[in-house]
TrEMBL record:
Family, per entry: Belongs to the CcmH/CycL/Ccl2/NrfF family.
Transmembrane segments: 102-123
Keywords, ordered alphabetically: Cytochrome c-type biogenesis, Heme, Iron, Membrane, Metal-binding, Signal, Transmembrane, Transmembrane helix
Job of this protein: Possible subunit of a heme lyase.
Protein name: Cytochrome c-type biogenesis protein
Domain CcmH/CycL/Ccl2/NrfF N-terminal: 20-134
Source taxonomy: Bacteria, Thermotogati, Deinococcota, Deinococci, Deinococcales
Keyword Transmembrane helix: yes
Keyword Isomerase: no
Signal peptide segment: 1-21
GO biological process entries: cytochrome complex assembly
Amino acid sequence: MRCLVRRLAVPAFLLLTLAAATPPALSPAQEARAERLGTNLRCPICTGVPITESTNDISREMLREVREQVAAGRSDRDVYEYFVARYGNFVLLDPPKEGAGVLLWGAPLLALGAGGAVLWRVLRRRTPATMAAPPMTEPEPFDPFLAQVQRDTARLAGSDTESKS
């Protein structure tokens, strides 16, 4: 009898191990949901690669876990919380925008708004009269050659207008 139990125990153990290793059969909608969830989970070994695109064993195991949880009927939030509990917020490619994450997401927008406000105040202070007035410069020193060229140019311009009439 003991011999029979031992002979049956080994194949039964192998069948149970094989059954536990195979992922549950999912409907096409569940499979699509598992893939969508997997694209937001980061591979712990690769840099910035979702588990659906990674080929290492940990990513495959994580994707199997996602499929099991989808088959069990857990919500997206429950699946993400499960992985965050195991790997931390790092595992999410799109972390939630709460806590310190809000500051990181909002800081560029705040800086852009502050820069726009400063620019608006600077432009508002400038008046059209100060923008149009030429800067005050000292008169040019008297140059007799330049004065002669200006007289000749004015005389030529005057004779051109008389000849055209």
